[in-house]
């Protein structure tokens, strides 16, 4: 449960610090370094204490420089030093999301990725309005529950575990009634299913152009391509601890000018105080932030990401993902997302052999110095495990993880058919 955030005051924040026309901040040449890899069970992250390699779909392993940013001395959240860093951070987020639209609004708020759902439900939908949810797993169901909690009428386009709604099904649903918004989970962390956004956006703009397109990008931002302007998206919500590579604690989102106009024109007040956009919009000259150290860590992480063209980062994740998925296939294992076009590039969800239980395998992997995640999709939870590999080839623990997986399966009596 999200702790109630204390009111911490206001500060006049120059809107020029967050506009797309702001001068591009200077990106330091900090190298992304994870230290040398060894064969001992614990992963050595440069100056970090030895520890098991975390290979779950978030949080991911964090770079030394990012963690060191957290040790910044205590400072006023309304002081000029922090305000400047915060403004640069918002500008960097525009680059990450690939938007130059000055009407688009970024938000960085103390909270988890789930807070992004509340931002959408509390501000962009009013009680009784219709919302279409594309269901591809546990987290898309969670988004639907959040919208229902705020009074929205939710219709789902459902799919079997490991798949996603198809465009013809979505078109049929959009043609049936007018929806205030549509939500899609870009990567459902429960299944590793990747949803296609570009063609989806084209469909929505053709069939129902007034419907806002909202993306849950918690497990996709910074490892899957998101062209916010080009694909005409209206909202993307994410969190700091996934592919962005910053410790947990920040809800990060971007909303289009169209979405912000929809918020401004709502007939009733937002159904939340903490999640109300009016309390977090810099254009309203309000800055309520209690986590300067986390914002500094986010600033460092974004600088690292943007030292190279963002397209290179997406390509690197695809390359690393292909290698991992080929190795999983070579072990005779099937992925939960059976269609290669539906497979995420920052994580891999794989079915276990019938003779192997996740409750037996995961402890063995832990003893070998790697931490995988169990399944959470309610229909198949006991049948699969999840391998998180965000940060792509920059990780030095992928080979170790694959070796541990092969050895762990063998220890439980499994051999490839």
Automatic annotation (TrEMBL):
Coiled coil: none
Keyword set, alphabetical order: Aminotransferase, Pyridoxal phosphate, Transferase
UniProt cofactor(s): pyridoxal 5'-phosphate
Domain Aminotransferase class V: 77-377
Claim: Transferase is one of the keywords in the record: yes
MF terms in GO: alanine-glyoxylate transaminase activity; L-serine-pyruvate transaminase activity
Its EC number(s): 2.6.1.44
Modified residues (N6-(pyridoxal phosphate)lysine): 242
InterPro entries assigned: Aminotrans_V_dom (IPR000192), PyrdxlP-dep_Trfase (IPR015424), PyrdxlP-dep_Trfase_major (IPR015421), PyrdxlP-dep_Trfase_small (IPR015422), SP_NH2Trfase/AEP_transaminase (IPR024169)
Full protein name: alanine--glyoxylate transaminase
């Amino acid at each position: 449960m999200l702790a109630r955030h204390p009111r911490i005051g206001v500060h006049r924040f120059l809107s020029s610090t967050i506009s797309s026309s702001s001068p591009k901040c200077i990106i330091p040449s900090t190298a992304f370094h994870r230290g040398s890899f060894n064969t001992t069970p614990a992963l050595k992250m440069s100056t970090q204490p030895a520890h098991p390699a975390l290979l779950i779909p978030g949080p991911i392993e964090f770079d030394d420089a990012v963690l060191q940013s957290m040790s910044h001395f205590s400072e006023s959240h309304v002081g000029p030093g922090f305000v400047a860093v915060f403004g640069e951070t918002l500008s960097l987020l525009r680059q990450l999301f690939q938007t130059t639209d000055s009407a688009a609004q970024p938000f960085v708020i103390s909270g988890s990725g789930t807070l992004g759902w509340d931002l959408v439900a509390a501000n962009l939908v009013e009680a009784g309005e219709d919302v279409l949810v594309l269901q591809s797993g546990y987290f898309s169901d969670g988004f639907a529950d959040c919208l229902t909690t705020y009074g929205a009428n939710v219709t789902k386009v459902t799919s079997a575990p490991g798949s996603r709604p198809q465009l013809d099904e979505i078109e049929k649903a959009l043609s049936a009634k007018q929806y205030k918004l549509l939500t899609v989970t870009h990567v459902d962390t429960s299944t590793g299913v990747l949803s296609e956004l570009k063609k989806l956006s084209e469909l929505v703009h053709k069939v129902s152009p007034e419907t806002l397109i909202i993306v849950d990008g918690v497990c996709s931002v910074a490892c899957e391509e998101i062209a916010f302007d080009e694909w005409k998206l209206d909202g993307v919500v994410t969190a700091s601890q996934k592919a962005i590579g910053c410790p947990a604690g920040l809800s990060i989102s971007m909303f289009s000018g169209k979405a912000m106009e929809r918020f401004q024109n709502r007939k009733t007040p937002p159904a939340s105080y903490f999640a109300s956009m009016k309390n977090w919009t810099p254009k309203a000259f309000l800055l309520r932030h209690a986590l300067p150290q986390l914002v500094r860590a986010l600033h460092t992480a974004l600088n690292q990401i943007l030292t190279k063209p963002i397209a290179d980062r997406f390509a690197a994740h695809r390359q690393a993902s292909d290698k991992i998925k080929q190795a999983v296939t070579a072990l005779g294992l099937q992925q939960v997302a059976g269609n290669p076009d539906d497979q995420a590039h920052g994580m891999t969800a794989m079915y276990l052999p019938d003779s192997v239980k996740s409750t037996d395998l995961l402890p063995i992997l832990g003893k070998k110095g790697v931490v995988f995640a169990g399944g959470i999709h309610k229909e198949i939870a006991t049948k699969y495990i999840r391998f998180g590999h965000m940060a792509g080839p920059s990780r030095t623990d992928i080979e170790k993880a694959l070796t541990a997986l092969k050895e762990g399966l063998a220890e439980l009596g499994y051999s490839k058919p």
